[in-house]
Amino acid sequence: MDIQKKLNVLIVEDSLASYKAIVSVLQNFGFSIFAERAEWKSEFEQRIKDETWDIVISDFYLPDFDGRYVISRVKEIYPDLPVILITEFLPEDSASEFLKLGAAEFLPKSSIIKLPFVVNRELEAYRLKVSQKKAWDMLVHGEELLTRSQKISHLGHFEVIFPEKNTLWSLELYRILGFDFGEIPLMEKVWSLLDEPEHDHIKVVWEDLLKDNHSKEMIVTLNTKVGRKKVNLWLEAEKFEDSRFRIFGTIHDISDLSELEHSIQLNEQLFKGIFNNSSQAIFLLDLQGHVIRMNRNAVLSFEREEADVQGLELIRSIFSNSDQESIKKLTYGMKLALKNQSFEVFVSYSLSDGREKYFDCDFYSLTDPSGKILYIVLEAKDITEKIILERAYAQSQKLEALGTFAGGIAHDFNNLLTPMLAYVSYLNAEWSKNETNEAIQKSLPAIEGISKSLDRAKNLIQQILTYSKIDNSIAKQLDLREQLLQVLKEVRVVSSNQIVLFTDLGNEPAYVNADPIQIFQILSNLYENAVFALQDTPNPKITISLSRILYEKSELLHVGFMKNTEYWKLSFSDNGSGISPEIIEKIFDPFFTTKGGKGTGLGLPIIYGIMVKMGGTILVNSSIEKGTEFDLYFPAWRTML
């Protein structure tokens, strides 16, 4: 578990034993605890203000107050501070009510073992919000600096998006032009302040800008309400896709030109620096949801160039391949942002190569001093690695628990099979003495059938015991290539001669640290699975390849929890019927099989468990009617010790 070790926790609990249990379970999971207990309302009021807490854990029923008061009081003082309720006698409908009031989670005391995971989740979310707030405060501060510097230097800017003609003026431009801030920004109002010759000239320049991407700079005079002003007018046109483009420009009041131009440039760079160096992916959108700007982190996280999506609608361009649920959430977030409300949403994102990424997204609006919404902002945090780690951890926990459970049952069942096998053996020995007895001769096939069934049951029990004892292996350094050649030599004797086998194993020894018995299990099982998949395939073919790969130059970069820098990649591929998407998610689940009575459903779970314990992994890629490929990644050893 990836946790921040230090934790300041306020525990509101009238039971000393429960308090100690909470502290103990958190310490057992690696937290370094500073904890205080509050039993009475007065103690709670004092302690909540005395320290800086990371989290509050509270019982619901307390001597002179309850969990409802704890939630409301904490949210009143520290709105973002997480509160976790732990109690045993709270109705389910009440628990939902208190979660709506602001509680982060509700746990029965019988499920206290889950507390460290809940605390870790809420602590990470709380610290992330604090970090985001600091980053955004810096960004807002940069915007304020830019606005102030424009005011000091008398420089305003504007932007017009075509064909909608959506127009934006900066605050300083309103001041230069002499218009009230409530005035609707239109460029015709600016041109009306020009003398007639300059008005005619600007019309020609403006038309030229609409035809081609270029810039223009000129000195003109504006007849404002406060008098004539000499200004430097700079215009630049930029075309997007789908006949969309914008004109960006600045108007610099140089009537009383000072030496503040350097300050303007400095503050603009400061604003851009904060925007581009944010740890979050940031999209700046217009009120129709079109992308105006995206920072450097957005380009890296979403693997899209700013020039390719600028001016396009965010959801239909960036998230066009996302699932419908994510698109609905994003659309709802945009609607709330247009009402000046923030919205947080978890969404999936599909890259062009088919990889899936996951983001925590925040929508909110940027307004002018009058409260008018100018832009919509989407901040997105890439949590792909976290999601992958959580799924891998959940899978390993499930396999481990099931292995322990299955091992216990298999051991007891094996004890029952032993005397049954002995009795059948005894009957065979005794009845073989009476070969002339017709009744005995008729029953011998039944005895033989019972004996075979018992043998199959014993083999199944042995596989279950193997699955439950993956940890009990004796690892040593061995040559994976040599092991593979030995396995192929053995399994090819008993497999169909019609199958064409292609191998590309190279000539370099592939040293790994593993149990040779488990390696045999992995290789033989994968080969047998491929043979089974090809039983109804014309021109069946199996391809096996072995190669050394670097972590940072492989698909493992997106797995997230691999630790080695080099791996041996062993690929088993066949040209069989493939695995359907509905089934492929279940193939590593214990006892799931598509072989009917011919399979136990333990082969792939055993392989998965062995690979994870070894520090590697197994990935699968399959296409219907094209075949299936299993890729195994073994941590590489440079030399044999």
Description:
With 641 residues, the chain is an alpha+beta fold. It contains 19 helices and 22 strands. The model has no long low-confidence stretch (mean pLDDT 78). The two termini are 32 Å apart. It has 4 domains: 5-132, Rossmann fold (3-Layer(aba) Sandwich); 154-259, PAS domain (Beta-Lactamase, 2-Layer Sandwich); 388-468; 476-635, Histidine kinase-like ATPase, C-terminal domain (Heat Shock Protein 90). α16 (480-494) crosses α17 (516-533). It is 44% helix and 25% strand. The chain is extended, with a radius of gyration of 35 Å.
What key phrases describe this protein's structure?
641 residues; alpha+beta; Rossmann fold; Beta-Lactamase; 44% helix; extended; EC 2.7.13.3; phosphoprotein; PAS-assoc_C; histidine kinase; phosphorelay sensor kinase activity
